[in-house]
Every structure is written in C-alpha cells, then in structure tokens.
Design brief:
Layout lengths: L1 H10 L3 H74 L7 H12 L9 H8 L9 H39 L2 H5 L3 H4 L11 H5 L2 H36 L2
C-alpha cells in the first residue's frame, strides 16, 4: 500500500508527498528497531532477575552451611586445645581415654560444601554485565574473594594433616586405640593390641608441634569462615534490596 502510494507520487512528481512518505518509512523502521531492542532488553532483564533470584536462594542455603562448618571448626579446635592441656598436665596417664578421644577429634576436619551453580552461571553469563547495581557487583566480588581465601586455608590444613600429621601418627601411634571410643568406628574396627602411651605423647615435641600448627590454622579457618559468613549476609542484603 505504502509502496504503491510512493510510486504514484513519484510518477506525479509530487516530491513533497514523496518526502513525507520517506519520513514515514524511516520513522517506522526506527520505531520497529527500538521496539525490537526494548523487547530484547526486557528479555535479558527477566533472565538476569531469574539468575539473581537463584543466587539469593543459594546464598540462604550457604549461610546455613557455613554455620555448620563454623561449629565443626570450633569443635575441632577445642578438641586440639583439650588434648594439649591433657598432655601438659601433671598426670597425663589419668586421662588416657580423653586423650584418645580428643586425638581423633583433632584430626577431623569439616568439609566445606557450598551451592555454587547459581553464582558460576551468573558470572559466566552475558547478563552479568547488565547488573547496574554497583553494590551487588561489589558484594559478589567480595564473596568470591573471601571464598578463595577460605579454600586456600582449608587446603593448607588438609595438606598438613594428610602429609604430616597422618604420616607421623601412623608411624608412632595407634589410631585404632583412639578410634575405638567412637561407635561409628567400632562397627567395623576391632580393638588394637597396641595402646597409646599418654606419658610418651606428653614428651613428644614433634606431636605437640603438629598440634600447634593445626590449631593456628584452625584459627585462620575460623576467622576466614566468619568473614565469608559476613560477606554472604551482605550479599543477601544487596540482593533482597534490589
């Protein structure tokens, strides 16, 4: 219809009408492009909102997981402290059972298991660049930095425990004698004919050094977990306020 009208105006050499028709075509194309861009932007924003909602849900779950991880870290540190106190006491032989129990607890480390899929999907997506809220972008960066710090510290603790403490323990002490006090072990572990000597442990500087290193690193784990917990709360606040 419009094309036929333009043709008629050209044949009639009605250049004013041709100009009007041309403007109508240009404006129509422009509006069409703008509407298309607006629809695409709205679609991307809906995807972004969905990703941020998923991230918010994961952060709520992570907050609960971090609380469990923190409590386990505290319990392990308390066990190591009690073990050193028993060994430093005047009569470590009177606390043989307690020493065996706290010895196993000292070597147990919690596993950090967080929901990461929503965060990873968001960061890898094109929609991540659309986040106009600078607070959310900052809190995401802080959260990932704090998680990296905690993972690094946990890996250091695992390396020392697995490479040093376990190796030393296997060579010098009886794990079965210590583990027999726990029901989860007694179901498949027979009592050992060997026994740990509290007095020998109390005089063992290497063992005390390893416990001290583990305690110091557990302290770092505690502080780093608290920082990540705070970052999680601040990220949640930013997501809920968007």
């Amino acid at each position: 219809m419009l094309l036929r009208r333009i043709t008629e105006h050209i044949k009639a050499q009605n250049w004013f009408a041709v100009g009007i028709d041309f403007i109508i075509v240009v404006v129509g194309v422009f509006i069409g492009i703008q509407v298309s861009n607006w629809n695409a932007a709205n679609a991307q924003q809906r995807v972004l909102d969905s990703r941020l909602t998923s991230l918010q849900r994961d952060m709520h779950d992570n907050l609960a997981g971090l609380d469990v991880y923190l409590q386990s870290t505290i319990e392990g540190a308390e066990a190591a402290k009690q073990l050193r106190e028993f060994l430093k006491g005047e009569s470590p032989g009177d606390h043989a059972v307690e020493i065996d129990k706290t010895m196993v607890q000292s070597m147990a480390l919690p596993t950090l298991s967080l929901r990461m899929s929503a965060m990873e999907d968001l960061i890898a997506s094109d929609e991540f660049l659309l986040i106009a809220n600078t607070t959310i972008r900052k809190e995401i960066a802080d959260w990932t930095d704090d998680l990296s710090d905690l993972n690094r510290i946990q890996n250091d603790v695992l390396e020392i425990r697995n490479s040093w403490l376990h190796s030393y323990f296997v060579e010098n002490h009886s794990f079965a004698s210590a583990a027999v006090h726990y029901r989860s072990f007694t179901e498949f572990l027979e009592p050992s004919k060997f026994a740990n000597e509290p007095i020998a442990l109390a005089e063992d500087q290497t063992f005390d050094n390893l416990l001290s290193i583990i305690l110091l690193l557990r302290g770092n784990m505690f502080e780093s977990t608290q920082e990540l917990t705070q970052s999680t709360r601040e990220l949640l606040d930013a997501l809920e306020a968007r």
